[in-house]
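Q: What does the assembled structure look like for these inputs?
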Amino acid sequence: MVENTIKFLLNNEAVKIENLDPNTTILQYLREELFKSGTKEGCASGDCGACTVVLAELDPEKAGQLTYKSINSCITFVGNLHGKQLITVEDLKDGAKLHHAQQTIVDNHGSQCGFCTPGFVMSSFALHKHNQKPNRDEVLEALAGNLCRCTGYRSIIEAAMTSSEANQDDSFAKHYQQTLVALTELDKLPKPILNGNGNTYIAPQNIYELATELTNEPKSTLVAGGTDLALSVTQNLAVIKKLVYVGNVAELNTIEETESEIVIGSALPYSDFIDTLHHYYPDLGNMIERIGAKQVRNTGTLGGNIGNASPIGDMPPALIALGATMTLHLNGTERTILVEDFFLDYKKTVLQTSEFIKSITIPKPIAGQTLKLYKISKRLDDDISAVLAAFFIEQIPTDKGQKITNVRLAFGGMAGIPKRGPTAEAALLGKHLTKESVTQAKAALANDFQPMTDVRASDKYRMTVAQNLIEKCYLELQSTHTREVIETRVVNY
Ligand SMILES: Cc1cc2nc3c(=O)[nH]c(=O)nc-3n(C[C@H](O)[C@H](O)[C@H](O)COP(=O)(O)OP(=O)(O)OC[C@H]3O[C@@H](n4cnc5c(N)ncnc54)[C@H](O)[C@@H]3O)c2cc1C
Ligand code: FES
Ligand code: FES
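A:
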């Protein structure tokens, strides 16, 4: 059964969309269809945060609760609104009273030309919905995807740091139960479709519907968060004939743990699995916190990051280094392959027509294993890597030091696909981790890669930094080991 409309709450009002081109972004819909111009367009590519709005959804983890997430409306298709509450800056006020997230900007002189202000306000609003007293780091994380060209950040940060018990009785809190009921009703609706301008958007609800859809219409384009795909529409003016949204497919939105593995559904946004990965692999958690900004991590997915087959995607090198596998689904049949075998050539993968990524399986660490990750980019936050280095090293202690029994050195940004450096690995495998073996591995890396020059870095820079990261990893492991030995001696003494 299908429903030929997109139904959602716009602030506290039930709204439906019919006969609209599904290539329309939420930002275009707000500004050009509803003439709600509070939400601004700065870059139309997810970089500046001026277009930030908040989506409230039923919390899949906690029955009877809502989650509030900031997103970039300029790179999210309007179909993704189905079943959610869209909160925009126009309706934050409660009657004539400014919302706390707005009033603190006024009180702290956090706005000059005001162009960026609605975006900052919405990011702050989303933060305070889950965190009444955020610390500075939490505020910086929440606001990293918002840029201001005139006010400067001190006053905006101070505004967002202000404790906000006042949020508890804003108009959304007052309508909380009503919203829960309305979203629960929307959740029961059959899969939605949006048709307009001869283009179609459909949102299957289970893996069978998704597989059938792709088998019947193999030329369909999958969309998850859209943080990559939507740019082809907003920047390259592409028109996508048929969009198939994976965000409602239950089986693709799970995270499960076994004794030895973590299995992440391909359509689960980063924000929903970052804590689990941080727990097992702190370096990986820290790196994911540098993928885009909060708005991008609230919608972007692993399936999209691998599926776009970009040579500069951050997750593939990390997954390759970890020996992760992925399960692919084609019309009821599944196969599991190593992530490293997924990529064939620049933007070419082993994915067959109508096949899609179902899940990614990451082994849990065991004693003696280390994962080290290094993201090299011009800015700390919200920037694409020039080089991403992911090193997995397994060692056993011997009387001559730590001997390497397993090693995977994977890189992004160094070739047309994310890949390992086999010659450099061979220089380390079976050896002790010493200055000499590391020097050999650094030299060997030149046989594994011939990086390119582009706007992010020159070929020479890429090679030099990749080689130096092997040494950095060695030095860090040495200092960890030395610290452990000293600590053991201190304890023994
Ligand atoms: C401002 C900004 C900053 C960014 N920063 C980073 C960064 O620091 N590091 C980084 O790696 N990336 C970054 N990205 C790129 C992007 O956000 C990520 O790659 C993200 O993980 C893409 O996921 P998505 O769900 O949005 O993919 P989508 O845009 O929905 O899809 C991307 C591609 O994958 C395909 N696809 C989606 N799901 C599946 C599936 N289940 N099976 C098969 N194919 C599928 C789609 O058809 C499409 O071709 C950034 C993007 C923006 C806009
Ligand atoms: S307009 Fe810049 S992030 Fe959307
Ligand atoms: S107040 Fe002008 S861009 Fe921020």
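The first strand starts at residue 2 and ends at 3.
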